[in-house]
Write a structure and sequence with these properties.
The complex is a heterodimer of chains A (295) and B (236).
Chain A (H helix, E strand, L loop, with lengths): L2 E2 L2 E2 H32 L6 H19 L3 H22 L9 H23 L15 E3 L4 E3 H23 L1 H11 L1 H6 L4 H23 L9 H16 L4 H21 L7 H12 L10
Antiparallel strand pairs in A: 1-2, 3-4
Chain B lengths: L5 E12 L2 E12 L3 E5 L6 H8 L6 E7 L2 E2 L5 H4 L4 E4 L11 H6 L11 H7 L16 H14 L4 E5 L7 H16 L3 E5 L3 H7 L2 E6 L2 E7 H6 L1 H8 L2
Classes of the chains: A mainly alpha (295), B alpha/beta (236).
InterPro entries (chain B): AAA+_ATPase, ABC_transporter-like_ATP-bd, ABC_transporter-like_CS, BCAA_Transport_ATP-bd_LivF
GO molecular function (chain B): ATP binding
Pfam family, one (chain B): ABC_tran
Amino acid sequence: MPEIFGVPVVVLLGQILLGLINGSFYAVLSLGLAIIFGMLNIINFAHGALYMMGAFVTWLCLSQLGLNYWAALVVVPLVVGAFGIVIERLFLRHLYRIDHLYSLLFTFGLALALEGLFRYIFGAAGKPYPVPQELTGVFKLGFMILPIYRAWVIVAAVTVCVAVWLVIEKTKLGAWLRAATENPSLVTAFGINVPLMLTLTYGFCVGLAGFAGVLAAPIYQVSPGMGSNLIIIVFAVVVIGGLGSIGGAILTGLGLGVIEGLTKVFYPSASTIVVFLVMVLVLLLRPSGLFGKEN
Amino acid sequence: MIEDATRLEVENLHSWYDESHILHGATMKVSKGEIVTLLGRNGAGKTTMMRTLAGVVRQRKGKLVFDGHDLMSTPAHRVARLGLGYVPEERGIFSSLNVAENLVLPPVVKAGGMSIEHIYELFPNLKGRDSTVGTRLSGGEQQMLAIARILRTGADFILLDEPTEGLAPVIVEDIARVLGELKNLGLTIILVEQNIQFATASADRHYVMEQGRIVDEFSNEALLSDMARINAYLGV
């Protein structure tokens, strides 16, 4: 059996694939965070909690309303996005013009409140969510057995990320968003309703977190703490990719998932900290992040 | 009914940046088809006047009527939709957009805007630069792009803040030629300008600003025949 550094290639490939699955979640979440930071100048600490909310709404859709996974894939991002829009309208928009610290504290508080609320209502234990029937089964790849659902997660996440990137980089709407990030008052003077655009952007990015929550429900246990476990890593991803860099967030998310997977093979006990080691290295060598623009 | 040619009426206009009170009761009028300049020393409030008219500065008081619309109660993003185009002093070319994206960024607000072909005729330097990053253009080209993107929107009242600032004489000539063409097209323009020669080349009237007020007004002929008076204001 072929080996690399004494590790069978089969094991290596398997871990790379698993890493890509985690990386898919990192990518979708850090993409939303990067856009929110770039456009609204807000560090959205509630992103993990909104992802958790997405997973819970998915679970509730099935257990309470009988809405299946495919319906949830559409409904949940809309519900979570609408929740985000309310939050933006009621609270966040008052914080744009003052210090970052306030929005950071607000979103952090919101995350704690949401987590506490879900824990109070549903308890801390994880809720199982079945893999949708159409996606049960496995692909036999020779070097590993890949559950079809996990392959779907990678495909769905990468598709969504690429689509969002294309919209931002290649369309007129994207040009407005980029311009408003640079100089909102001039874009307003050109006749574009920037406050409305900010509201919709926040709603959309939060909807993306909800979408990630739907994808996660059949893989991870649906539990109130699932977001806070992930959000710290996702922040590291955004910092490594470069604050505000959309493409950077996507590539870094997937890449770090793979690095984490590989670390599990070579030095398992470091796998939980490797992302942060990379972050320290990147901050030392390239403080603006791998894909960030120097100021 | 007698047609009222007045397009913009500014009366006792005050405006502020946070605590600092910049405009102190400025009053002026601009009629259809006129090119009117704002002259004055640095810090007289010319740029603030433009930013207040464009709706960028929101802390303001007084009367501001444009084509019969009360601008004081018009949300910032609606001002452009009335046909008021703003070319800021800093040009405002976006570094995250290429030339083509910069050019088509402002939404079309009125019929009769310039076609892209016409724009390239007027500004041949912009042709073939579509994929260049906006801020990689030279200063003069950025200025042309900033003007061109407003002309495309169909705005027929243009606020042009120091278009020649920091540009080489040959580029200034280019921009003067463009201004002449815009005048022929019947556009109404408020021009902030330090370069008197440039200002007098195509303007009809001149207002002088001092300490946030309009303190004097000249016709172009009056200005040309009495340069000593304007020089006294400008401290030249």
